[in-house]
Amino acid sequence: MTGSGSGIGRAIVDRLAADGWQVLGVDLKAPEGDLAETLPGPSLGADLTTREGNKAAVDTALEHFGRLDLVVANAGFQHVSPVVDFDEDRWDALLAILLTSPFLLAKYAWESLRAAPRGGRFVAIASAHALAASPFKAGYVSAKHGVLGLVKTLALEGAADGITSTAVCPGYVRTPLVEKQIADQARAHGIDEDRVLEEVILTPHAVKRLIEPSEVADVVAFLQTPAGSAFSGSPVTMDMGWTAR
Ligand SMILES: NC(=O)c1ccc[n+]([C@@H]2O[C@H](COP(=O)([O-])OP(=O)(O)OC[C@H]3O[C@@H](n4cnc5c(N)ncnc54)[C@H](O)[C@@H]3O)[C@@H](O)[C@H]2O)c1
């Protein structure tokens, strides 16, 4: 489970643990002290923009649990900028965390997922931005469209071995990733920060509210049920009507 230190990732760790899973949380920094005490399982600090970080994530899970039944690729960040000014290092980092990390996790975990007694599961927390674009998010939108392609490919390659692969595609979720965008969006659109939530962030939502991280975790938990395997190769869209237009 990557990106476990915040937002959606933390909610998924808590939900899977409550459902009886043993979960390794992986994030840039392993939590320390009181924060570590609140985590339901072990954790690893690793930079998932590197091959070594993704290898360490898989190897550490296998060391702890002896097998690996589920990979949830969730870690990510956002960068908001017009294409003409888009920082090229930020582009590389976005592709590395949002697209290459899920690929490496799947590759390194593949043999373990193949051996999983009830069928291996791969879940990517993609986005409504895997299905639709927004201005000023070239790196994020491109990587999220790419990860949906990866999920579909894994579903086809894994089918004969009982491995399922699904992309969860939420609209805007109440997490630090969204909160951090408010200042950037205000700058990019030339409006005050207090107008950003209503006039920019929630604009694509037909239902005018943010999604809660626990709601995304509920969907990931459902995907682990027998009925969840029917969603292999699919985007599970939970976007408040965004892509219904
Ligand atoms: N918040 C939303 O509105 C929203 C909507 C759709 C999809 N998503 C996706 O959900 C996922 C989680 O987002 P969130 O909103 O919970 O964000 P968040 O900022 O709350 O959490 C992201 C976590 O990823 C970790 N991370 C970032 N770079 C890393 C790296 N190089 N190595 C290891 N860990 C790294 C961060 O440290 C952080 O703990 C992301 O993939 C995001 O694109 C978010």
From TrEMBL:
Pfam families the UniProt entry points to: adh_short_C2
Coiled-coil ranges per UniProt: none
Superkingdom assignment: Bacteria
InterPro entries: NAD(P)-bd_dom_sf (IPR036291), Sc_DH/Rdtase_CS (IPR020904), SDR (IPR050259), SDR_fam (IPR002347)
The family this protein is said to belong to: Belongs to the short-chain dehydrogenases/reductases (SDR) family.
Name of the protein described by the UniProt record: 3-hydroxybutyrate dehydrogenase
Record organism: Actinomycetospora chlora
